[in-house]
Amino acid sequence: MEVRNETTVRIDELEFVALARFVFEAMHLHPATELSLRFIDETEMEQLHIRWMDEPGPTDVLSFPMDELTPGTELDPSPEGLLGDIVVCPSVAARQAAESGHSAAEEMLLLTTHGILHLLGYDHAEAEERRVMFDLQRKLLLTFLATRDQES
């Protein structure tokens, strides 16, 4: 797991590594699965958003799959591979967090979980897909946060 913070925002990189490991384990991914997570500014995020999604303005998170891995099961974990890249924009996340009433750090953890699920093939274009993905996202993040709080 590679975490790169290319912004001036303070990021607890170890927490994001712990989150990714937690989600990988919950989704039965091979322990050697690779993931890259970058934190970038709004200017670069807007450029990526236009280039890859053909949409103006910066967005909160973008995911770029590599080996098209899918979730495994306890008895049959997914094969080892490169899951892909997730790019998060902390300033967009901070605005969303203020609107939602939680911290920017929690919003970025949510966005990272969301990004991992996209890399695993989850989507939210249709109502049922949205329900499944967002329920799983919520469950994973809340369980991670509860586990983290117990360790503190």
Automatic annotation (TrEMBL):
Its EC number is 3.1.-.-. It comes from Brachybacterium phenoliresistens. InterPro entries: MetalPrtase_cat_dom_sf_prd, YbeY, YbeY_CS. The lineage of its organism: Bacteria, Bacillati, Actinomycetota, Actinomycetes, Micrococcales. One of its GO terms (cellular component) is cytoplasm. Keywords: Cytoplasm, Endonuclease, Hydrolase, Metal-binding, Nuclease, Ribosome biogenesis, rRNA processing, Zinc. Belongs to the endoribonuclease YbeY family. The gene is ybeY. Binds 1 zinc ion. It holds the Pfam family YbeY. GO terms for molecular function: metalloendopeptidase activity; RNA endonuclease activity; zinc ion binding. Its main location: cytoplasm. NCBIfam families: rRNA maturation RNase YbeY. Single strand-specific metallo-endoribonuclease involved in late-stage 70S ribosome quality control and in maturation of the 3' terminus of the 16S rRNA. Its cofactor is Zn(2+). It is found in: Cytoplasm. This is Endoribonuclease YbeY. One of its GO terms (biological process) is rRNA processing. It is an enzyme of class 3 (hydrolase). Zn(2+) binds at residues 114, 118, 124.
